[in-house]
Every structure is written in structure tokens, then in C-alpha cells.
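JOB MANIFEST
job_type = single_chain_structure
chain_count = 1
residues = 150
[input]
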Amino acid sequence: MIIIAPLDPFTAGFDVLLEESRQEGQRMLVRLRDNWNSGANRFELPGEVLKGVFYVGNRGPEPQLVATGGRNVDPYSNERHAGRIRHLYVMPSMRRQGVGQLLIEHLVEDASRYFNYLNTHAPETAHAFYQRLGFEPVSGDNHVTHRLAL
């Protein structure tokens, strides 16, 4: 069973996920933790959410954090109604099982109440993933690789 629930860097399992991401050379969860701790970004503005995907199953009785993702006001845009998908990370053993797609769909679900579109800056390895979910490639912007019109 999969559960999507609010998350913060103190949630059980976050440190494990952070370490896995670091071992892959990713720093998004380090930035998430550091920005949370400094108060720079706590996903508190209207329309902002930070979620975790928890797996409950044969890995033990407790839910295991297997993915993170958030939606922010886009800090790189001057457009008031620009949102941004941030800190999307799925544990390697859970990739290609629909977890990332489920999380993105959840983050997009009510986004149009707050934003006109959602931007993201995805690594090249994730471009096809975002495009399958309806995000269009963006060129000429150093802070945006893909955008989803809402």
C-alpha cells in the first residue's frame, strides 16, 4: 500500500533517503533540509506543499519513506502565479513502479487553485519522465527545463 502524506526533514526515514540521494550525487534533499533548518523554505506560502510517499508492505510493519516532492511558489520567476516542482526524489529500488508519477499527479491535483503553471529544473535523465506527464520542454531559461500549463 502507498500513502502520500505531509513531510518535513524530521520525518522518520528522511535521513536514509537523503543519504541515498547523496550517494547518487544528488543534492536536492540536502538543500531541502538546509533550507528548512534555516527557515529559507518551509513550504508555508499559499499553494505550497511538501509530501512524502510511504510504502507499507513486506518491508516491515512501519511505513517506509520512499519518495519526496514539493510544490513551491517559483523563486526564480517574476510571475506571481508561477509554481515549481521541487525536491522530487524516488528511492532507486522504487523507481519505474509508478511512485514518481503518483507523487507528481498528487502535487498537480489542486495546483491550478494557486498557479497558472508549474516549472521544474530536471536532470537530463528525468526529461522523458516529465514529458510523459505532460510537461513541455523549455529552452532559454537557466532555471527551467520543463513547464506544465494548468
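[summary]
The domain at 2-116 is CATH 3.40.630.30 (Aminopeptidase).
Strands lie at 2-6, 49-57, 60-73, 82-90, 117-120, 136-137, 146-149.
exit_status = 0
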